[in-house]
Each structure stands twice: as structure tokens, then as C-alpha cells.
Amino acid sequence: METVIVKHCDNYDERLVDKKISQIFEELGGIGSFVKPGQKVLLKVNLLMDKPAEAMVTTHPLVVKAVAKLVRDAGANPVIGDSPGGPFSRILLERAYQKTGLKEIAEETGIELNYEIEQEKVSFDGKLNKSFVLGKFVTDAELVINLAKLKTHGLTMMTGAVKNLFGTVPGLLKAEYHLKMPRLADFSEMLVELALCVNPVLNIVDGIWGMEGEGPSAGRIRQFSYLFAGSSAFAVDTVLAYFLGINPVNRAPVIDAARKRGLCSSMEEIRLIGDELIPPGDVEIPLPVENSNLIDRRLPEGVSRILEPLLKPRPVFLPEKCTGCRVCYQSCPPQAIRMNHQKAEVVLDECIRCFCCQELCKYQAVKIKRPLLGKILTK
Q1: Which of 32, 42, 80, 227 is most solvent-facing, going by the fewest CB within 10 Å?
Q2: Domain extents for the chain?
Q3: Over the stretch 78-107, which tens digit does the pLDDT of each residue have?
Q4: pLDDT value at position 87?
Q5: Top-confidence range, 179-183, 308-312, 361-365
Q6: Do the domains 290-377 and 2-274 match in fold?
Q7: Cβ-contact 220, 364 below 8 angstroms
Q8: What mean pLDDT comes out for the span 183-189?
Q9: Distance CA 331, CA 317 (A)
Q10: How far apart are alpha carbons 300 and 97 in whole angstroms?
């Protein structure tokens, strides 16, 4: 039986956040149950892009600050880090830290921000992966505390503790994993193996405010009013799926991948402690993409080709919003994006529907078009 802590917290008042984070650690036996004096502790935040905290795209800096202070007070050495979407460089890290408010809290507290951009290959005896290439900021740490953000996700339905750990893979190497595993089931299984490889000692999810609809960057901000925590990333994500209204919870691809591994994937396996958890009941969640691939397996090739545009979701680029920044062009795993007169366009025949373009566009110039027939058949 796994334990997940739920704490009601309806705003980012610093004293309130400090209190709730302290209560989480108290419920779990105290900060000393996780960290020891002198240890280097990575606080793995969600630093998807250089958006301000109020955009609710990244882990809120006050949640990070509250955890960092407790780790430091325990005599350990906290380091805040992540590999944002796109290229992994010091310049882009500096921009992201500045914009998200993490640089400000680091200056206030003296907490270290990571600027290490080297990488290291780590062996792992998985079914799909025998190794992972991780940022050295991960491998240099003695332990990891995972600080995720609760959002819906255009590819995986939701992003929480497990998906947040994809940020341990540096920069554009993430695209290689998408390209090697275009099937959502395989990609989700890779995420499960990556979570087992990184093995955070604790997962805390900032669900005070988050995102619904076409997350993780272009959805609508939504007040959820909870913090979630647990030592099992899979148990925490199971609770998140239940809270968001994904029914059954293993309809979420990552949780289904965990279920197939015999890992925690149902509410019956979880003991909730803390505050009462009341799901809102009306969260808009993107439909899973994988179901549309059924046409590739069940119908003759000619019929499948005709029906594909009627079933498969696809990225749609909005030229009026595109600034020509080329982030999507640089980050597209199959290199299916072309620049035409400084505007991005996608070649759908080459697109693998990973939706990295939509995830990484801070100008919301990419939307996911989900055909009506596809929506009906995948409900």
C-alpha cells in the first residue's frame, strides 16, 4: 500500500505554502527521513519554458523555495535544476530562471541554480531501455526530489510526477526518444523506466494552480487548490488522474504503462492522508492520441489512408501568432517542420504526433486539431 499526502492550499501566499510543505514532510516522518547533512540534493523542477510563474506552466517558485529551505535547514545542499524544452544551454537556462522567478528566490536564499549542461550515460536494465542519457546535474546529485506541476497534456493526457522526470534528459536528446518511440504506449513505457532509473526519493506536485485543456503550455490556467506528495511517482500520478477525472485512471497512458509493470496504478493500492480530496469533476482533458492509431492496424492500407485525416489529431500552425523563433523547427524529432517566409509549417506525412511543437511554443502559435470523428470514436 502506497501513501500519498494531500494538502489543501488555495493560493501562493508564502506563509501558507511554507506551512503546507512543512506539514507534508511532517506527515512523511520529517525532512530527515529523506535527506542527510552534506548531501547534494537535486530539486527537479518543471522548467518547461521561460514563462512567468502566473502562466502556471512551471513549478511555482514559492513551492520550490519552501522545499529548498527545508533541505538546506537539514544540512543538505539543494540545487534547483531542469532541462527545459529546446536546446540545453547556459543562456537559455539563465533566461528561464529569470523569467520563472527561480533566479529571484535563489538570490534571496542563496540556493544554487544548476548551470551544468554536460550529460552522462547511465546503465539501466529495462525492457525497452538498457541505458539513459541524463544531464550531469542529475547524476552529480546524491538524491532527487521531484517538484512537478499539475497540468493536462496534449500527448499523455496529464503531466505530473512521472512526466516531469523527462526533463532529466538534456535538451534536444528528448527528441531522439520521441523519434525512437513514436507509439504512445512505447513512449509511456519509456517514461516509466526513466522514473525508475532516476528514482526520486520524494515527489511533490504543485497543484495549487495548474492547467487544463491543451496543456502543458497552451491550455487554460485552472485553480486546483491542492499539493500532492508521495515517495512513489506512480502512486502520486494515480491520485492526480483520479482528481482530474480520468476514468479509469489507467486510461492515462503512463499509468497504464505502470499497471503493466505491476506498479501502483489504482486508488485501491493507495492510502490518502492529509486533507479531504474533492475532484472538481469538470476538468477539460485532451483525448489520448494512441487510439487513433487503431486505423493503422484494423483496416486495409488504402482505407486507413483515406480515414486518417478524419481520425488522427494533428498540429495546426497559426501564422498570425508565429514569430519565427524556430524553437519548434529545432526541436521537432522527425524534422517535419519547415520555415516558409519566417513562419513554421508542418509536413503532416512526416509528423509523428508527439506535439513537441505545441508543447514548446510559448507564443501559443500551435494548436492541436482533433477531428470530430476521432473524438467520437476515442471516447
Answers
A1: 32
A2: 2-274, 290-377
A3: 999 999 988 899 999 999 999 999 999 999
A4: 87
A5: 361-365
A6: no
A7: no
A8: 93
A9: 15
A10: 50
The pLDDT tens digits of the residues spanning 207-234 come to 999 999 999 999 999 999 999 999 999 9
In the numeric block, the cell 539563465 is attached to 94
Task: Tell me the C-alpha distance between 212 and 208, whole Å.
Answer: 13
The CATH code of the domain at 2-274 is: 3.40.50.11440
- Residue type present at position 101: G
- How much is the pLDDT for 296? 44
Q: Hey, what's the cell of 39?
A: 548531501
In this structure, what DSSP letter does residue 293 have?
Answer: G
Q: Give the mean pLDDT of 112-119.
A: 97
CB 179 within 8 A of CB 244: no
Contact 338, 328 (CB under 8 A): no
Under a CB-based contact definition with an 8 Å cutoff, are residues 111 and 68 in contact? yes
CA distance 151 to 154: 10
Q: What is the CA radius of gyration of the chain?
A: 20
DSSP 7: E
C-beta neighbour count of 90 within 10 angstroms: 10
The pTM (predicted TM-score) of the whole model is 0.89
- Which residues have C-beta within 8 Å of that of residue 163, sequence separation ≥ 6? 148, 153, 156, 191, 254
Instruction: Tell me the average pLDDT across 262-267.
Output: 97
Cis bond upstream, residue 78 (ω within 30): no
DSSP 3-state of 211: strand
Residue with cell 509549417: 345
Out of 236-240, 283-287, 291-295, 366-370, which region has the weakest mean confidence (pLDDT)? 291-295
Q: How far apart are CA 342 and CA 360, in angstroms?
A: 17
**Does 111 score more than 50 pLDDT?**
yes
Cis peptide before 216 (omega within 30 of 0): yes
Residue 119 bridge partners (DSSP): 135
Antiparallel, parallel or unpaired: β 143-153 and 202-212: parallel
- Cα 87 to Cα 27, 106, 152, 339, 351, distances in angstroms: 39, 23, 24, 18, 20
CATH class for the region spanning 290-377: alpha beta
